[in-house]
Amino acid sequence: MLRFFNNNQIHTAFFVILAALPFLISPLYKAEPASYNLPDFIDFFKLNSHLSLAIFSVLILVQAFWLNYLVNYYRIGKKTSYYSAIIFVLVTVSFNCKGVLSSSLFSSLLIIAAIQQYFKAYDNKNTVKEIFNAAFFCATAVILNPQTIVFLIFAIASWLKVRSFNTKEFFIILLGLLLPFYLIGTYMYLNDTLLKYINYQFGYFALIKTTIIANLIFWVLISGIGLLSLISIINFQRIKAKTNIREQKYIDLMFYLLFFSCFFWIGNSKIDANSLSLLGLPLSVLISLNLQSIKNQRLAELQFFVLLAVAILANYGEQIFKIFGL
Questions:
Q1: Consecutive 10-residue runs of the chain (326 residues): their mean pLDDT?
Q2: What CA–CA distance (Å, rounded) separates 20 from 253?
Q3: Sign of CA dihedral 167, 173, 178, 184
Q4: Burial of 63 (0-12, 13-18, 19+ CB in 10 A)
Q5: d(Cα 103, Cα 27) in Å, to the nearest integer?
Q6: How far apart are CA 112 and CA 67, in angstroms?
């Protein structure tokens, strides 16, 4: 089935959308309709379930194709394909199978924008704009979702990985990290909602609770994606094989993203689908790069079918179990 996504032609993008559609509309067949879970200070409009699901679907596809573009354009993978796009969709809809429009989706969009700035900065000696933009996007992601607070460290660590910087550039990074907080704080102060915003930011630092129901579907989800992720990490050096220094830095940056994403619990008092979704972006890239590096096509197909089965079970497991009376 991977052969449908094995090139970079326009019609292949249609196959990605076609394959994603059953998973994007699956919340319509659940007992609980798709909803949204956004911060109070940006929750200035009310959405019905169908509009929320439509925005959710658009965000998923935009991120999938944007991420795939970066992988292909900067030649991170072994070949140009739509692997990254379809795998991002499958991983994300597995973690967020209810189609909840959450802050993690917007945070992931901003992190992709920051990653593009890091990629551009490697070939650009005048990197002032890229430095500021990358830091600004990471800080804005934290404003939308305090669970991503570790991305403030990721912003600096990634820049050190891409290239060294001088004192002037370091202060530019700090400016980019602090400016979004200053702007949103000023806006909240003028609207007498600053205290509400501060409570939102620091409200996540508490005893960790979870709303996840650890049923059979959940354990299959964690086991399936966890296995594919472990295989990708074990094969990390093979993924980097026969790539130049530039491409190796880009791949290392995605590994950094996975590393820092794993610490989402530091700024999180609630572990749910929204927080687990933070892992979707780095895991999908590493899994797709691993599949591209596998010479045995049957083995690559097998790993893809495992992910596909996980996505089907996560989105339609309840209906399947009812059919068989389980």
A1: 77 87 79 57 58 85 93 84 91 80 84 90 76 91 83 86 78 90 85 75 59 72 88 86 82 86 64 73 90 86 91 81 66
A2: 27
A3: positive
A4: buried
A5: 18
A6: 7
With a threshold of 0.90, does the pTM exceed it? no
Alpha-carbon gap, residue 233 to 144, rounded angstroms: 29
Angle at 266 (CA atoms; ends 262, 269), nearest 5 degrees? 110
Instruction: Return the pLDDT at 115.
Output: 92
How many angstroms separate the first and last alpha carbons of the chain?
29
Q: Rounded distance, CA 228 to CA 115, Å? A: 23
Query: Taking the domains of the chain in order of start, what are their residue ranges?
Result: 2-323
SS3 271: strand
Calculate the CA dihedral of residues 48, 53, 58, 60 and round it to 10 degrees: 140
CB 152 within 8 A of CB 110: no
